[in-house]
Specification:
The complex is a heterodimer. Chain A is an alpha+beta fold. Helices cover 36% and strands 11% of the residues of chain A. Chain A has twelve helices and seven strands. In chain A, the strands form two sheets. A five-stranded mixed sheet of chain A has the order 2-1-5-3-4. The C terminus of chain A is likely disordered. Chain B is α/β, with parallel strands linked by helices. In chain B, 37% of the residues lie in helices and 19% in strands. Chain B contains 17 helices and 19 strands. In chain B, 63% of the residues are buried. The model of chain B has no long low-confidence stretch (mean pLDDT 96). Classes of the chains: A alpha+beta, B alpha/beta. The complex binds flavin-adenine dinucleotide (FAD), iron/sulfur cluster (2 copies) and FE2/S2 (inorganic) cluster.
């Protein structure tokens, strides 16, 4: 029963025609189980055929219909009108980060580009036989560990809401990193955690600022932010920390173990390596103004306790599952 | 100009599996109207059949498939399907598919309808999603070139041989051509020809129609599968896996009504049997509300539902506000699958040189009059691979494909411009709706000559109206309205062929049930229906069924 009324304000933009987007308003009827996609289809079928939006499965599994609903990325087909209706109109806009092309359609090529660069596939440990005669054995636990990551439908909700991706176009982004983690943690895979580090371009997992937005918007509960910490753990275990962020974390680890606190003096040197010489003029200025911390410092009094924390954590045989 | 040795239309399971196969031997390209991950293969839930258990055997899989098909499947093709099944599943596993596992670490299997053994390998209730992502990942790994969001307008053929394709690039709105020595059509099903369907909105069936216009035959189109358990209202699928895990069906009187129709297999009888039983219950007044029944999973328990059926639990919650752990799910039968399609041999080849087909759009035929659950995913990967191998062999040693003349582009540009320029006429979507309803009423679960006559008359009127359509969006880029109008015209051809096939087949077999001819008639109808393009519309004929080991018997469950 369509017994309630909702007002939709939809972002409209005609490519090559409109210099600036506009918002069109539609009044529509909805019921308890009506989802946003139903309303969009009603508009396209019976009100305004020119409305552009992507859709296919209409059941939350193909990833086509992600868009911003009142500012947050959501799947139109999985979002009940009743859940987003408020005092004002429901505002529908194209996903963030990616260029809008027409109405609710964005250019997803940059999304696929970064995704494809993490080598998002299983790299088998040995060449596969032409005609395989068995499966690879895998325990229920091994599957359970990465199952959640395998649920990603590549809808781009996360990456288009990511604070780092917003400012750093070369950031691999949560979807790609979750994918990287899914394979890095697969016992059948040969490549491992190398995937997530990225070189300078695209920028890897250490660019994540842990805002957790990706996990919040993900319609499939993939929890990319968790995957990113898991991937970091896997990277260390496998001994592949060779980018700036990784070295920074290692330095962090070492100094705290040694001194019980961060040594801001050595952090940049060890993290950036020889490249830190490029910062020499800046360092001189800081030193002159007394702003550069000394690389020499004292061990904190209760250092034993800190080291016990380290030892205990390591004794648990951390394979990358960070809480 | 773009050119490939082998061009594949469709980035679903069949298309990508074919692409991986061709890629090892020849230059391959894929065109798809949506990003591959949006293909409807991702929606497959329940699983993929293969006799991989020591206690199972391929002969039983063959028998179940043939019996399930009501003896219309070509048995030589079924033998290939089932023989290659274990290999196909192992391949998917080794490519990275994350199947659910047994305690022993092997691929987990569940019971599915119409089979005597729990033979359906699964990844929770997301098997299609897992398989599709796996093949896409491998396609990336092997650098398969994909033209995303290109809508194919025509398959070019000339002198009985294929030449390439014409497509509309949705991003630019421009008409493009691609020359190819072989084309493999992997465009999936046409569910949207019916008003109640489990299929994606994009499943409008152009591929079958394009192949028909290029000279291939459409086979057994009257065999349309109606899935028993689709969510009431939206018709989103609730997998047979739900019944495989112990789900029960009840009518308004609280009766487990399958007792009356299939006492031995009960809820796990084949789909045609269960759908008809449900439709009878509803028609005889034992439906609930205004026409649904209850699928009760409450006996399965929260843990098992969470582990094996998480997606369908979420679907029931989102789309009906029902929690299957504690309440029964309202369900009704809906169109689900096309047994018919582009007629091919066991290598995916059609009568047109270089034109191949695989997956749901093809009819080899391994499903005959009724497909078993779990056999379609299998069909896509087994025959996708085979069609890829055959196409690669076909193009070997041939000169580079001949360039396609500019006049072809011009001709399509003119057609599109004319459609965009038309100011008078109807918008396609209400007309399409009428087609969907006419088909659901006349060519649905139960059919009768009178109903089919009526549907065909309605289709005639709709066809005339479809000649006079107008599109309000006059621009070229991402013009979904224009694309919808083009899709609709293809759907309409399929509707006609389905209804005509159903009207002429005066018997009941598998999913095709005629109230006026309720018995199977092997003497006259143990045959495939064939439709080919004639001067003015489809021309119908029949062809023989290949029978090897299993002579037709009465089919009881
Ligand atoms: C909800 C649901 C659940 C299912 N569950 C199961 C199951 O558990 N087990 C099982 O065995 N089977 C199942 N099936 C059936 C099975 O999933 C499908 O038959 C199968 O996935 C079809 O795969 P395909 O590769 O042939 O086509 P699709 O995956 O549908 O791909 C078609 C491709 O063709 C492209 N295309 C179409 N038209 C054009 C055009 N004009 N131009 C360019 N490209 C075009 C599309 O872009 C798409 O990439 C299910 C089906 C549904 C609907
Ligand atoms: S947690 Fe990291 S990846 Fe996720 S949205 Fe925030 S910055 Fe982006
Ligand atoms: S992680 Fe979630 S939000 Fe991101 S692409 Fe995958 S499904 Fe979408
Ligand atoms: S239409 Fe497929 S996820 Fe929304």
């Amino acid at each position: 029963m369509l017994d309630k009324k909702a007002e939709l304000e939809i972002f409209r933009m005609e490519p090559d025609v409109d210099e600036f987007p506009r918002f069109d308003t539609f009044q529509l009827e909805y019921g308890e189980h009506t989802v946003l996609l139903d309303l969009l289809r009603e508009i396209r079928d019976n009100r305004d055929g020119s409305l552009a939006f992507r859709s296919a499965c209409r059941s939350g599994i193909c990833g086509s219909c992600a868009m911003r609903v009142n500012g947050y990325a959501k799947l139109a087909c999985q979002t009940r009108v009743a859940d987003v209706v408020g005092k004002g109109p429901i505002i529908l806009e194209p996903l963030g980060v990616y260029p809008a092309i027409k109405d609710l359609v964005v250019d997803l090529e940059p999304f696929w580009d970064t995704h494809n660069k993490v080598k998002p596939w299983l790299e088998p440990k040995s060449t596969l036989p032409d005609v395989p005669t068995s499966e690879s054995l895998m325990s229920i636990q091994e599957v359970d560990k990465i199952k959640r990551l395998g649920d990603c439908i590549l809808c781009a909700s996360c990456t288009s809401s990511c604070n780092t991706a917003e400012v750093e176009k070369n950031f691999q982004g949560p979807a790609a990193l979750a994918k990287a983690c899914r394979f890095a943690a697969d016992p059948r895979d040969a490549l491992g955690a190398e995937r997530g580090l990225g070189e300078i371009k695209p920028k890897g997992l250490y660019w994540c600022c842990y805002c957790n937005m990706c996990t919040e918007v993900c319609p499939k509960d993939v929890r990319p932010a968790e995957a990113i910490s898991m991937l970091k753990g896997l990277g260390f275990t496998a001994g592949v920390p060779h980018d700036i962020g990784a070295r920074r974390s290692l330095t962090f680890y070492d100094t705290v173990r040694r001194w019980g606190k961060i040594n801001e003096g050595t952090l940049p040197i060890r993290a950036k390596g020889i490249g830190v010489l490029g910062y020499f003029p800046l360092g001189m200025r800081l030193l002159a103004r007394g702003k550069l911390p000394s690389p020499f410092m004292d061990v904190i009094p209760r250092i034993k306790e800190v080291r016990t924390v380290y030892d205990n954590r390591e004794a648990q045989g951390d394979g990358g599952e960070h809480e | 100009m773009l050119s490939y040795d082998v061009l594949i239309i469709g980035g679903g399971l069949a298309g990508l599996r074919a692409a991986l196969e061709v890629g090892q031997q020849a230059k391959v390209g894929v065109v798809t109207k949506v990003y591959p991950m949006r293909s409807h293969s991702v929606a497959a839930q329940g699983g993929i059949n293969a006799a991989i258990s020591e206690e199972d055997n391929t002969e039983d899989h063959i028998y179940d498939t043939v019996k399930g098909s009501d003896y219309l499947a070509d048995q030589d093709a079924v033998e290939i399907l089932c023989d290659e099944a274990p290999r196909a599943v192992y391949e998917m596993d080794q490519m990275g598919a994350l199947f659910s596992r047994t305690e022993a670490g092997r691929i987990a299997q569940r019971p599915f309808g119409g089979q005597d053994f729990p033979r359906t390998c699964y990844a929770a209730d997301k098997t299609g999603h897992i398989l599709q992502h796996t093949l896409y990942e491998q396609a990336l790994r092997h650098n398969v070139k994909v033209h995303n969001e290109w809508f194919v307008l025509e398959i070019l053929s000339d002198g009985g041989e294929v030449r390439g394709i014409v497509a509309l690039d949705t991003h630019t709105g421009k008409v493009e051509t691609i020359a190819a020595n072989a084309v493999i059509v992997c465009t999936g099903g046409y569910g949207r020809v019916f008003s109640r369907s489990t299929n994606a909105l994009i499943n409008t069936g152009e591929g079958m129609s394009l192949a028909y216009h290029a000279g291939a035959a459409l086979k057994d189109m009257e065999f349309v599968q109606f899935h028993p358990t689709t969510l009431y209202g939206s018709n989103i699928l609730i997998s047979e896996g739900a019944r495989g895990e112990g789900g029960l069906l009840f009518n308004s009187e609280g009766e487990r009504f399958m007792e009356k129709y299939a006492p031995s297999k009960m809820e796990l009888a084949p789909r045609d049997v269960v759908s008809r039983s449900m439709e009878t219950e509803i028609q005889e007044g034992r439906g609930i509300g205004d026409g649904y029944l209850h699928l009760d999973l409450t006996g399965i328990g929260a843990d098992l539902i969470g582990d094996r059926l998480p997606q369908i639990a979420e679907l029931a919650r989102t789309y009906l506000g029902v929690d299957p752990v504690t309440e029964p799910i309202p369900v009704q039968p809906g169109q689900h699958y096309s047994m018919g399609g582009i007629g091919t041999d066991v290598h995916g080849a059609t009568e047109v040189g270089g034109l191949y087909a695989a997956g749901e759009c093809a009819c080899v035929s391994v499903h005959g009059a009724n497909r078993l659950g779990g056999n379609s995913l299998l069909d896509t990967v087994v025959f996708g691979r085979r069609a890829g191998a055959a196409a690669a062999a076909y193009v070997k040693g041939r000169p580079r494909p001949a360039p396609i003349p500019d006049s072809v582009v011009q001709e399509h540009e003119n057609k599109l411009s004319a459609l965009l320029a038309a100011d008078s006429g109807e918008s396609f979507s209400p007309v399409r709706k009428e087609m969907e309803v006419a088909m659901m009423n006349g060519a649905g679960v139960y059919r009768h000559k009178d109903g089919l006559d009526k549907a065909i008359d309605q289709l005639d009127v709709i066809k005339k109206r479809a000649e006079n359509l107008t599109v309000s969006d006059k621009t070229r880029k991402f013009n979904f309205e224009l694309q919808g109008a083009l899709e609709f015209k293809h759907s309409l051809l399929l509707a006609e062929v389905i209804a005509e096939g159903a009207r002429s087949r005066e018997e009941s077999r598998g999913a095709h049930f005629r109230n006026d001819f309720p018995e199977r008639n092997d003497a006259d109808w143990l045959k495939h229906t064939i439709a080919t393009k004639g001067e003015d519309g489809p021309v119908y004929s029949t062809s023989d069924v290949s029978i090897t080991k299993h002579q037709p018997k009465k089919r009881v469950y």
